[in-house]
Amino acid sequence: MSDNAPVRRRKATSNQDSGSLRKNDQKTQSQYQPYKDAEWGFINHWYPALFSNELAEDQVEGIQICGVQIVLRRVDGKVFALKDQCVHRGVRLSAKPMCFNKETISCWYHGFTFNLESGNLDTIVGNPDDKLIDTTGITTYAVEEISGMIFVFVREDDFPDEDVPPLSHDLPIRFPESSEEYPHPLWPPAPSLMDENAISRGIHRTGEANWRIACENGFDNAHILVHQDNTIVQSNNWVLPLGIRPVSDDCITTFEEEGGPKGLMQWLFTDRWEPILENKKLGVKVAGVNSRFYRTSVVMPGVLMVENWPEEHIVQYEWYVPITDDTYEYWEVLVKVCATEKELKDYEYRYKTVFKPLALHGFNDCDLYAREAMQDYYADGTGWDNEQLVDTDVSAIIWRKLASRNHRGIAKPAKGSQGSIKSSSIRLRNITDGKSPGYRVDKIEE
Amino acid sequence: MSDNAPVRRRKATSNQDSGSLRKNDQKTQSQYQPYKDAEWGFINHWYPALFSNELAEDQVEGIQICGVQIVLRRVDGKVFALKDQCVHRGVRLSAKPMCFNKETISCWYHGFTFNLESGNLDTIVGNPDDKLIDTTGITTYAVEEISGMIFVFVREDDFPDEDVPPLSHDLPIRFPESSEEYPHPLWPPAPSLMDENAISRGIHRTGEANWRIACENGFDNAHILVHQDNTIVQSNNWVLPLGIRPVSDDCITTFEEEGGPKGLMQWLFTDRWEPILENKKLGVKVAGVNSRFYRTSVVMPGVLMVENWPEEHIVQYEWYVPITDDTYEYWEVLVKVCATEKELKDYEYRYKTVFKPLALHGFNDCDLYAREAMQDYYADGTGWDNEQLVDTDVSAIIWRKLASRNHRGIAKPAKGSQGSIKSSSIRLRNITDGKSPGYRVDKIEE
Amino acid sequence: MSDNAPVRRRKATSNQDSGSLRKNDQKTQSQYQPYKDAEWGFINHWYPALFSNELAEDQVEGIQICGVQIVLRRVDGKVFALKDQCVHRGVRLSAKPMCFNKETISCWYHGFTFNLESGNLDTIVGNPDDKLIDTTGITTYAVEEISGMIFVFVREDDFPDEDVPPLSHDLPIRFPESSEEYPHPLWPPAPSLMDENAISRGIHRTGEANWRIACENGFDNAHILVHQDNTIVQSNNWVLPLGIRPVSDDCITTFEEEGGPKGLMQWLFTDRWEPILENKKLGVKVAGVNSRFYRTSVVMPGVLMVENWPEEHIVQYEWYVPITDDTYEYWEVLVKVCATEKELKDYEYRYKTVFKPLALHGFNDCDLYAREAMQDYYADGTGWDNEQLVDTDVSAIIWRKLASRNHRGIAKPAKGSQGSIKSSSIRLRNITDGKSPGYRVDKIEE
Predict the structure, then answer these.
(1) Would an 8 Å CB–CB cutoff place B91 in contact with chain C?
(2) pTM for the structure as a whole
C-alpha cells in the first residue's frame, strides 16, 4: 500500500545552500531574462495540439499555440498541420474547412489551395493559371501522434525542417531507463506516453493566466495549503503536512544533456525535502501525516510529470500551452500501460469515476484559481522584479534559469493572432454572445 | 429571361497587362498610402444615415459615422444634422432628446440650446444671459433625403459650407445617361435612387470589421466559392463558375471627371472577364454554367452598385459606412422605379418574401462572415503590406489608388467617439448587459 | 414648513466678478494641473470603505480605492485594513480568507502570515524558519468607524504613520460649531456623522465614470433640468426654477485652514445665487417656484454635504471614491441624530419607504446617467482642455484649484490593481459570465 507516511532518511541541520539558491536579486534575474521575455511562450518546441479522438478522419480543426494559428487535418489516419492563415487575405482556413482531395486544403474564401505536406500553393480553385501559384505557400508543422495524443512542433516560419528534434526531447524522462539515475524506492517505475500499450486519458481547457504562472504553480511544492480541503484528500483521510521545504543542496537535480529532454527533478519524499508539521508561532501542529507520495519533474517547454499519482502505476502529465500572453491551454493527462482489454476497461472505469472528478477537476481546479489569482500581478511584466521569494521557491528559480538556457526561441504574437488585439470589436461582440476567447477556432455557421 | 449563360465575345490569349495591373509591390502600395491611413474612413463625403422611416416627425436619433457623433432631428418634415456633442461638458444631445421649439435642440444636461440650421449656441435654458451665448456652437451637417433615404455630409469641423458637393457626386453613375459610355447589352438600364418614383427597400446593420475590408469584399469577383451553397443560388438552379478572371486591359474602367462620381466599373459578363469552368489540378469541372448576370461598380466613398440584381429592373446599392476603425454600418438597399401603386405593392411583396430573406440575408450574410474573417489580419494596419494578391485582385488595387487620389479627407476619431477607447468600463458594462457596441446611441432610460 | 420659496435679500446688478471667476483659459487650467493628473484619485486621504453592517465579526472583505487593493478584517469588533496583495506572488488575501488567530491574516496560497496591526510578515505557515520572515510586510491602513461607517486612510506605502490626519479633516464642516461662520437662516443646523447618536443610512454602488466627473456633478447647481421629471419632485408638487446662477462675488466661500477640512461652501438659497425663472428666447417661464431649499458644500477628497435634504434635520453626504480611472464607488448617505428608539424607528421607516426609493435612487439615479454621459469626452484626459464653461461653472473651477492646492498625493495605479489592464482575459471572461468589474473582490468559490 503506497499511501503511507513518507520516508525520511536524514534530518537537515542547515538550509544555507538551498537558501542561497533561492536568491532572486538583480543578478539572478538577469540570468533568466529570456524567460521574462517569453510572455507568448517558447517557440520551436513540441506541444500537444489535440487528443487523437478530437480529430476524426477528414476532420479539420483550428487552434492557436504561442500566438501561432494552426490548422489540423487528418487524412487516411495521418495528421497534417499547417499555418492557419491564407497567404492571400489572411483568413483562417479552419473557419470553414474546404478540401477537394487528400493532398490539399483550400481556402474557403478565394480557393487558394495548399499542399498538406509542403504547404505549397498548389493551385487556386477558380484561377488556376495565376503566376502566384507554386511561388509561395504556408508554413507546415511536424506532427507526431502517440498513445492518443497529437503533438505539433510549433516553429518559426524560418526554422529549418532538418533541425526539428524528436518529440522525446520535449517529453519527460522515461523509466525504467532513468531508474538508475533517478531512483526512488517508494514506487514502481512510472509509465510513459511512449511506452508500448500506453493509454492516455485526460482533459484540456483554457485558463486565463500566463503560461509561466501556470507552469510554476504546477511544480510548486509550497502550496499544499490550497489543496487541504480537496475531496480527494478528505475522502482518502490523507493528512497533509503544512509545507515541505528543501533541506539539501541536491534537493533538485537538473538535466541538460544534448539529445534529450532538458529539465529538473525534485527529489520529493526523500530526505532532501522536509515536511513541516508544526508552526509554533501560530500554534498549529499536524499529527499523523499520512498522504500519497509522489515526485515531480518538469522539462522544456513546460511539461510536468507527477510520478505515482494519482495512483500506483499511473503518471500525471501536465502542459501549460501558451495560447496568448494571458491565456494558456491546460492539459491534464494520466498515462497507464494497459496490456490487456481488462486492464484498459478497469482503468477507464476508474478514470471516469475517480480520477477525472477528484484529481483532474477537484484537486487541480484549485490550481486553476491560484494561477488566475497571480495573473494581475504579473500581467504588466514587472511582477518578476517585485515578488519576494523564499527558500521553497528554489524550484522556480532553477526552472527559470534552465528554461532561459535551453529554449529554442521566444515567441512573438503572429500577425492576426487571436488576442494580439484584446479589445477588438469582434472579440467584444463574441463576449456579448457569451463566447469567451479560447483555444479553438469558431467555425463559421450560416 | 435574363438568367442565361453570359455572352462572351472574344477569348483572351494573354493576361499580361491585367497581370501587371495587379502588382502590389512597395511602389504600388506607396500609391495608396492615404487609403492605408483611412482606418476611420474618408471624411467630407456623403453617407447614408437612416432610412426615412427610421426618423419620424420630431424624432431625434444619434448615430456615429467616421468617428463623428451626429444627432438627427426631423422638424416639419425636414431633417437636420448636428454634431452630437455638447460644447459644454461633451455629452451627446441624442442621449435624452430635449427640444423647446422647432428651431433648436437643447442639451438635456445643462440646457445649452443650439440652432438647428447654424449650430449656434442660441441660449442656455437656465442661464440666458451668459457671455458664452452666441459666441460658440456645434458643427452642422448638410442633409439630403431622397427615395426613402437620409444622407448626411459628414465633414471636418472646418470644412467650408460652400465646398459641400452635391449628393450625386457620391452616388453611383446613372442610367440611361451613362448607357452610351457604359453600355451593357444584357439588361435594361439600371434604375437609380435619384430617379422619379424610385423606391428604396433595404436594411442596415453593424459589421465587426474595418470598412475597407468590407468594401473590397463587396466588389470582389473572385470569391464566388463562398456563395455556392446559398439558397438563392440553389433554389434558382444556378450553376456558378469556379471563378472569373480579367482577360483584357479594359476589364475595369475608372472615371474621375470633375463634377461627378469617382469610381470604377467592372465589365463583368462581357468578354473582358472570363469565367473559369475547370481546375485540372483538382480535377474539378463545372458544366452548364447558368447564373444571373450582373455588373458591379464602386464609387467614392465606397458605394457599390450591382446592376440587374437580384432581378431585372432592380439595382442593389451597398454602403460600408465607417463607424469606428473596426466596425462599419452595412447598408444593403434595393432600388426600383414604381410608377404605380400596383408596381409598388408587387415590389414590396417580392422584397419581403424573396429579396430580403434570400439576397440581403442569405446571399450577403456570407459576405459579413468573410469580412470578419479578414479583420484580425488587417487590424494592426500591416495586413496591407503582407497580403499576397493575384490577378483577380486588380479591382482592389485600382480601387485603392483611385480612393487615394479622390478622397476629400482622412477621418481621425473625434474626441469622445464611441470606440476610440475600446475597453472603457462603460463599454464593458454594456457588454455584460448583452449590449454590443454599435451604430446608434443608447438612449438614457430612467 | 421648510418647502417654501427661497429667500432672496438682494438683487445682483452685475455678475462681472463671478464671471471673471469662471474663466477657464490656459492660465486657469495651469492652476489645477494636479487635479487633471488625478485620474486615479487623490491618495493619502480618508475614504469610506464599507458600512459597518457589511463587515461582521471575523468577516474578511477586499475592496479597491484609488487603485489600491485593501483587505478588511474585523476582530473583536475592531476593523483592520491592510494591502490586499501578498508580498510573495501578488495574490489578494481576500480572495480566499484564511486566518489562524486574532492577530494575523494568512495568504491562502503559500501561507504567508501578516500581522494585522503592523503588516509584518510574522511567519509562513509551512515554512516557519524562512529568512524572509520578520524582514518584510505589507502596508497597513488606519481605520476609523463612526456612526455605522468604516473609513480607511488610503495611503502611499511610504506615507508616515505619524502624519495620518484625523478623519475629521476629510469630512464636511460641522454644525452648530460652524453656524456662526456659515449661517443659514432657513433651517436648523445640519447633523453630522460625528454627532452623538448620529445614524447613517445609505447605499453605495459602482458608477462607470471618472471620480472627478462624478464629484463635479454632485455639487453642480446648473443641471436642475435633469431632475425636473423625478418622482420626488413631482410627488411633492415642487416647481423648480430653470436654473440658478451666481450673482455675487461671495457666492462661494472656500476654507483651507490648517487642521480642518479643506473645501468650499455654496451659498445657495441666499441672495448670492439667483434662480432663473424665464428664458425669453425660448418663451419658457416658470411660475410659482416652490421647492426644497438646501445648501451644498464639498471638501477634500471629494465629499459632498447637502444640508436640509431630503428633509429637515437630515443631511445627505456623498462620496465618489475612485476605484480605477474610469470607475468610482458612489456613496449616498443620509445622517440623522436619533436620540431615542422611537426616533430611530421612524427614521428607518421613512428611509425605507421614501428616502431610499425617491431620493437616493429616483433623484440621484439621474446623476449616475449624467456622469456616464460625460465619461467618453473626458476619458483620454483632454476633455478638461476642450470643455467650454459658463458662469455657473464657477463652482467647478474653484473646486479644481482648491483640490490642486490641498490634496495629499496623486494616486498611481498600483501594480496588479483591477482595471490597470482593462482588457485582460480574466476580465473579459468574467464579463462573459455577466460579472461587470467593480469594487469588491470576487471570492474564489470551489
Answers:
(1) yes
(2) 0.92
